[in-house]
Amino acid sequence: MNCIIAQSGGPTSVINSSLAGAIQAAIDNDFDQIFLSLHGIEGIIKGEFLEVDKKKFKLNEAKDRLMARPSSILGSCRFKLPEDLKDETYNKIFTFLKEKDINVFVYIGGNDSMDTVKKLNTYILYNKIYGINVIGCPKTIDNDLNGMDHSPGFGSAAKYIAHTLRTIRADVDVYDLESVTIVEIMGRHAGWLAASSLLADYGYCKDLVNLVYVPEVDKSLKDIENDVKNKLKEEKNIIIAMAEGFRDIDHSLDKPMFSNTDDGFKHPVVSGFAKRLADYLRDKLKVKSRSVELNIVQRTSTCISKTDSDEAFKLGYLALKLGIDKSNLIPVLRRKEGKDYEVSYTEVEPDLIANKEMKIPKDWLKDENTLREKITAYALPLIQGEVDQTYENGMPVFVELSDFTK
Amino acid sequence: MNCIIAQSGGPTSVINSSLAGAIQAAIDNDFDQIFLSLHGIEGIIKGEFLEVDKKKFKLNEAKDRLMARPSSILGSCRFKLPEDLKDETYNKIFTFLKEKDINVFVYIGGNDSMDTVKKLNTYILYNKIYGINVIGCPKTIDNDLNGMDHSPGFGSAAKYIAHTLRTIRADVDVYDLESVTIVEIMGRHAGWLAASSLLADYGYCKDLVNLVYVPEVDKSLKDIENDVKNKLKEEKNIIIAMAEGFRDIDHSLDKPMFSNTDDGFKHPVVSGFAKRLADYLRDKLKVKSRSVELNIVQRTSTCISKTDSDEAFKLGYLALKLGIDKSNLIPVLRRKEGKDYEVSYTEVEPDLIANKEMKIPKDWLKDENTLREKITAYALPLIQGEVDQTYENGMPVFVELSDFTK
Q1: Which of A85, A338, B108, B387 is buried most, with the most CB atoms less than 10 Å from its CB?
Q2: Residue A87, Cβ neighbours under 10 Å: how many?
């Protein structure tokens, strides 16, 4: 048996844990050749791939080192497969898979990538291809994947954000004058990460994060102004955690338009609203006001949750194993009922995930205290434990592809 | 004997190590009362202060926990003492110091704060005050303090920047298309921190950081465009490390003016140029281009260099000790000649530091390779070793003032 593994979509801090899991499962299940496609499905289309050297993988402790290495080590792509199954691209992909005698293809990615998994399986079905199983493995920091309790990648990003908000609070409190600090956090359509900034407050007797603005909640500029004014009565230095996709309901600050129309992948550039809002509040309230964009560091940091990393590993492992007998599936996490955090693993079809988005439940957004309570119960277990880095010369050293490939 | 300690200027990740050092020295030298002024000199003027509880300090391991706690725990200010020594402010300060029987006042801060130390000593001299010694203790992440080999605070910021650049490189390499990522790093007039991003490259066979722009070097927009074009011939995804104070020589992108005239302390807002440059390059070179501002996180992160923290502690310790017999001095670091990194401690007068700035030497800036070589030899020893954080519930927990004060 041979297999191929690829990574797609935006990086996370634990996407390589899923890769490590899939490789480990292939080794444990006596796969002959374990291929790694570079830059997602594009590597298969272009024939750019590597092969795992099982001896080196073990010898160089690549499993543990992959679990400490943020961002997609295989590279990624944002390639959307054509709707037309007769398109030449499909032929190229399956010619490659047959040539290399691939039995299992594991695609680690987000909802766009699960669309790829879905289409490849439709192609398999229509063309009656036997012996090639295509399995998805979920990842995203945004936690907006449907059909599961939470997405691998979210816990580590939430941990980084909560950790960073604690240090930002330490900075913000330094001066004895009124100030507003708006922290812009990833999340285009869902506010999971912005909301998880509230974890920073856990165990403190005062709030470190004072206001949270997420795309799921409607606020006018006037509402925001009033929120800030009221908070400033209680607290000198206020911190607002804001999802990058949040806008005031009237889009009052959207003109002039944001710097560019798209990021090169047809996703519009949405960040930068925090800066505008900071300017607006400074002007209106005559208060020191600034914005901090956490930017790409939040999806690629070495602040990795052990819980998240272990779960991502397990999902990768299960994905590869599922592919031995089945196709068109994605392993996912379910949370067991009960006081203590415990998960079970099951699987769903890509149709449940592809092109869909999970948002924060409406009843969590009733008021700030409810959101704080709900998100803490939900996300605190996901940020537990730390993954140690290997330091050399004062900096973390990451595993390289050459450490475990031929 | 009594003493008082205060922190001033912008936070650093090790400014509390200097505080820990000063407190420890006061305990070791049998000071009776150890006061802590809140928000720098303003605490003395307003009578806002705390007193160290020596038993709690020991019992709660405050020394070690302060050395792991980023950002000024006593708060800070940007208060500039009046030039006129007859101003009422001086009277207020010395009335307080006499009332509390203060023999030693240690002021931990940057070049603005050393101006305060200088003025207080001039006041002491003119008014023939005996028994009150005012000593400075240096800190700044910018490394622009004159009269010393390097500033405490710089090593940790450099460590955070180099560390973060490694993770940004891991993110940037993910897509198989040309891209430019501009990382905006603190430094208004000196490029020490931007240059120290080059440490990220150490031990790698390819450059992780491709271009460095610092305020000390003149570049036109055309020069930058050509630099980027040339680098893109060798490397698909290029990273530019840019000091926030860097501008193209013609200031072509300065209009419309930056968001606000000052940050509330009469320091102009200088950040945001990276975003404009990213927009410009995207437009000119038709390339995916983005900016990442490291922002306040770089001065307040938990990525603390053990070397830096230990040196900051020692300087705080020496500052308090110096104050027992002398006034108008600042302990500083000197680097010993020789292959291995070793420092000695000496002291200088505040006049050498106050209101001055140390820039990167001209001969380091001859070309990129020279800068890489020079900054590596200079700064690599300063980022060695890690200070462990105490984690609870997946997040770092910091020492609080109430853990070691009455």
Answers
A1: B108
A2: 12
